[in-house]
Specification:
five-stranded parallel β-sheet; 20 helices; Helicase, Ruva Protein, domain 3; Rossmann fold; alpha/beta; 3 domains; globular
């Protein structure tokens, strides 16, 4: 790390931290809430070490007393890349843990232990490198027009990305689970790009699209004359993928005979072409995917249990689009950018009513359905933004009346009141942003708030100014 801010009123702590971190980069100190806040506003610190009393004092200064989550969100809103580490005595560890649960990177104990500080710094640096690598991979994939799930605001999807990054460099067999259209193929490509086989081929096989009588030949190849129509030797996908990765999509559809051969490949790394006697070595990494419940298929004797256990070494479930709706505005922008590359329309956004409908819809076809619906609307649209007239009317049939706020009488009055106020605030901001075509300064002036406050509220309600332009 190049820049570190140490915030403490204890001179011995400050001296010890400066000595330990002097080799890490530029180290500065602050000892009052006002000074800390000014330093954070003025400089893009990579890491802030702050003792617990000063963190609590900073919370009071910024009007977030007794609300660690709000304070951390404000700090992260201003410096999203800044790691925050709490310094706490043994009698205050419970409070330090509470801050970690609300977004702080880590904590260390006082008196300062050099090994503990270095361990925390190493962990933060390692996580920063992983995030940089992920961002690099996303940028490469973006350039390849693989727009399915390159960005996320969803905690569920972020965990998936973390798992993909972790398993990528290993040799482990991966089983991707999830509904059709959730992005399993993209996830498989990301694992391949992260692996040490990234310079080798990536061969994708949609097992469900291959007739049962041909699946063995397709995967393992065949010899000339091995069956009617086999006029010459054919190399199977496992040979073609040598040195790289083979992705077996819809693995649950393959025949029992092909399951036996695949099990041999996974167990012993060998196979034979159909009609052949030569034993071949499989130099591939296997990634499989299924939208069926393979475990239940094993119970129903439709899928071999031993093969399932071999495939299920590192399972990753890709969430449905309805479970990550906060990503829909990102997908809309990405798909519009993609369509604009092949058309002169230059459509830049969608009508707020359309976005409302997109966020309400359950998306049984997931990301693929969203892309298809947007592409159809793009073709029909005559204005610079996608309007309701370009979408099927069914998308708006279940729209909630904008004048009504749902009330759940099973909840307390306080909870219902907070939800109602939040909904009113969200709708108000949408109307203001829509009227001002997403212009922050004009919208903030009309709403009677500062631009920083408006940006915070937009982040809170997942409102992207781009959709109002």
């Amino acid at each position: 790390m190049d820049t570190i801010l140490i915030a403490t009123r204890d001179p011995s702590t400050s001296t010890a931290m400066r000595r330990i971190l002097s080799r890490e980069g530029q180290v500065s100190a602050a000892d009052s809430p006002d000074q800390i806040w000014q330093q954070i506003k003025s400089n893009a610190w990579e890491c802030l070490f702050i003792d617990l009393p000063l963190m609590e004092a900073l919370s009071d200064v910024l009007d977030h007393s007794a609300d660690p989550k709000a304070l951390v969100q404000q700090l992260k809103g201003l410096r999203p890349l800044m790691a925050i580490v709490i310094i706490a005595g043994n009698d205050n560890l419970r409070k330090a843990v509470r801050y970690v649960q609300n977004g702080v990177s880590s904590y260390i104990t006082a008196p300062i232990d050099a090994d503990e500080v270095r361990l925390v710094v190493d962990e933060i640096s390692r996580e920063r490198r992983q995030q940089s690598e992920l961002a690099y991979l996303r940028e490469r994939i973006w350039k390849d027009d693989s727009l399915d799930i390159v960005q996320t605001r969803s905690p569920k999807m972020q965990k998936v990305f973390d798992n993909l990054m972790s398993v990528g460099p290993t040799k482990t067999t991966v089983l991707l689970l999830g509904d059709t259209g959730t992005g399993k193929s993209f996830a498989a490509k990301l694992i391949h790009r992260r692996s040490n086989r990234k310079n080798g081929p990536f061969i994708s096989v949609h097992c469900g699209a291959i007739p049962e009588t041909l699946i063995e030949s397709e995967l393992f190849g065949h010899e000339k004359g091995s069956f009617t129509g086999a006029h010459r030797r054919k190399l199977g996908k496992f040979e073609v993928a040598s040195g790289g990765t083979i992705f077996l999509d819809e693995i649950g559809t393959i025949s029992k005979a092909a399951q036996v051969k695949l099990l041999t490949v996974l167990q012993d790394g060998i196979y034979q072409r159909v009609g052949g006697e030569q034993t071949l070595t499989a130099n591939v990494r296997v990634i499989a995917a299924s939208n069926s419940d393979l475990k239940q298929m094993c119970t129903d004797d439709l899928f071999r249990k031993d093969l399932y256990y071999r495939l299920n070494v590192f399972p990753i479930t890709i969430p449905k689009l309805c479970e990550r709706k906060e990503d829909i505005p990102l997908f809309v922008r990405a798909f519009l950018n993609k369509f604009n590359q092949f058309d002169t329309k230059a459509i830049q956004g969608v009508h707020p009513g359309v976005m409302e409908a997109l966020l309400r819809y359950d998306w049984p076809g997931n990301i693929r359905e969203l892309e298809n619906l947007l592409e159809r609307a793009y073709i029909l649209e005559k204005t610079p933004a996608l309007t309701p007239e370009s979408f099927p009317s069914e998308l708006f049939d279940n729209a909630e009346a904008m004048t009504g706020i749902p009330i759940d009488t099973r909840e307390t009055l306080d909870v219902v009141r907070k939800k109602g106020l939040a909904e009113i605030e969200r709708r108000y901001l949408k109307e203001v942003l829509s009227r001002n075509k997403g212009k922050i300064n004009a919208s903030a002036s009309e709403a009677g708030v500062g631009t920083r406050q408006l940006n915070k509220l937009m982040h809170k309600y997942h409102l992207d100014k781009g959709i109002f332009k």
